[in-house]
Amino acid sequence: MKKISFLVTAAAALAFANDATSQCFQFANVPSGAGFPIADDAVRTVALPFSFPFNGGSTNLITICSNGFIWLGAAPVVDPADFSATEAELRTRPARIAVDWCDWDTDNFAVIPPGGGVFFNTTLTQCNIIWKGIPRFGSSTIFANMECVLTSTGGIHLYYAGTHNIPNVTNIVGFSRGTTAPASPVNWSPTLPASALDSTAYEVFTSNVGVSPFDMVGRIVNLVPNAPPNTTPPINYTPNGNPLPVCGTIFPMAVAPVASGTGCPEPNVSLYEAFTATAGARPIDLANSSVLFARTADSYTTAQGPGLDANYATSGAILPSASDDTLHNFTLASTFQFGNQAISQITLSSNGYIWLGNSALQQVNASVPTFHTSVLPRISGYWKDLVPNNSTAPIYVENTATRFMATWQNVPLFQGAGSQTFQIEMTLASGNITLSYGTLTGVVTASPPVVGIAPQAPATNQANSDLATAGVANIVGPVRVTGGGTPLTHVVVGVGAALGQTLTMNFAGAPPSNIGLATFIIGSQTLAITVDSLAGPGMAPGCFLYTDFLSEFPLATLPGSPTGSLSVPVPMDVFIAGVQLRSQVALVAPVNPLGAITSNVNQWTVGF
What we know:
Blueprint: H1 6-10, E1 34-35, E2 43-54, E3 57-65, E4 69-71, H2 87-92, E5 96-101, E6 117-122, E7 126-135, E8 143-151, E9 156-160, E10 171-176, E11 201-205, E12 220-225, E13 237-240, E14 255-260, E15 271-274, E16 290-296, E17 299-304, H3 312-315, E18 317-318, E19 327-338, E20 341-349, E21 353-355, H4 368-371, E22 378-383, E23 395-399, E24 403-413, E25 417-427, E26 433-440, E27 450-454, E28 468-469, E29 472-473, E30 479-480, E31 489-492, E32 502-508, E33 517-523, E34 529-530, H5 531-535, E35 544-545, E36 551-556, E37 564-569, E38 580-588, E39 596-605
Antiparallel strand pairs: 1-6, 2-3, 3-4, 4-5, 5-10, 6-7, 7-8, 8-9, 9-12, 10-11, 12-13, 14-39, 15-27, 16-17, 16-26, 17-30, 18-23, 19-20, 20-21, 21-22, 22-27, 23-24, 24-25, 25-26, 28-29, 31-32, 32-37, 33-36, 33-38, 34-35, 38-39
């Protein structure tokens, strides 16, 4: 399986064109950058497109904590989301920048205002981390509105909006080289200190009152190293409060997937037998047989049925108005599931079949093309021009809470006479259909019958099935006989491909006959090419290729499973942000000559 590194390949030409020539603040932009999902008391490590120099070394990783500080590198194993601000921890734990280290609650969505959240933006020369409208834990009136800018030259820039509120507990603003950092308390306001020594300077605020109340609202602190910050320590900084320009370009956000196109369904087919006149190639051999069409989801398998229910005359009643070429509408006591359709109304034709739905269409003599082009699904017990009556050749009907059953008793053909006794039974709870036969003695010289079940149009003619031989039903199927087909559907979950997160791709609607092998296709081109144009006419009707093969990810599932899901990691590589990609699913299933079907397509953009 190809790795997700294909994203890097796809993005090689997308090196940022928005390199900053000087640092700038992102806070005032709308939006303030790319949404940066992070839970309460959590950390998230990101890669920078530059190395940030600090205290004689450098790092291209930072770890952002929801509680208002940034680890310079990976987070420590112990208490990485430290929410209790203390001077001792600042000096003895790893290097970090405390923008306003306090217990901020990034999960309090009921309080976070519209447009609020944690945001991130980066170019080749700087990154911006923003807390906007983030409430103090347990408060609905105290909010963090602040920003930290780190530059490729080692600059640290802190910004506190006029809407930044004063925390009501101890909090810290500053930075520390960590581990063995010297004590270096300063007072940032109202006058900046002359210098910050040895990569460490901080102010501990007691709360909104007390000895050292927070006084950074509306302030800017730019910490500029006096010497290259990756040279031999100690590294000293000169603070200034100069305003910075507003950044002009935000970092690309992950764009939620947009689906288009349609998946090709497993073709709907009719499960039937078309007989020939007189003897011929397919003589009518259903007499005294019983064929069960057993339903599983929207597919059917034939099997030996229980035989003609001989109690039809006592369990049912004669249909009084049945005669030559008549239609009779019924409301079922409960719905009958035919494939993927719930049927509540049916129409019985005196000519040996049942429409699944209300219909005024009477079709006298059977034909295979007509069987596949009907507006409604149909169950054909013995579709032929029949002439029932109320006395010698009645139709008995039973319509109960458990089943609908119609029995044609000794009904003659319009031409060919004889005696046709057969039964159509619909079991409401299971969706099973049973066709059972007694005597069939009419002489068929033209328009031979069609027997079986068919979906509404369009349906694919997969040719005759031999439903019974010498009075014994044959096993045929499973065959999907639905009311329009279930296309293979592809979904990309959530925001799609967010840097450093997991990309989850799903599919649904796989036919029961699938062998449990799918491939997620990912490409960059927008296509709409019929699969038949590539594989040959009729190989995969209705299937489209919607993108090119930049990469593919195979997935093994359980054979017959209707769904599948694949998750792959998206690298934390800012150079792939903004890449627009498309994904589609191909599934192996013996439902067409190609043996495969395809899904719709999703278009999404990599980013934060």
